[in-house]
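ingest -> validate -> predict -> emit
validate: passed (alphabet ok, no gaps, 86 aa)
predict: started
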Amino acid sequence: MVEPLPKWEMKKYASLWKAFEQKEFNNDEALNVLKEKDNHILSVLFYDLKRMGWIDVNRDPSDQRRKIYKLKEPNRIIKEIASKNH
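emit:
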């Protein structure tokens, strides 16, 4: 189930979408795009994006300790939110 994001998370999602679209990326790449120095903020963001249905999270096949992220397509998310409200 997809839920609307708070404004600050939507801005970060938009920056990530602009950089990666539907390509997979890792934590370091996201930190670089978002120009974040605090990994805690990114952890909170990814937790919320996953919980609210905006991102898929998988383990890196080459290193199971690391995660690989893939954003869900914005039009798909909007359709899911709209269908939930009807």
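The chain has a mean pLDDT of 92.
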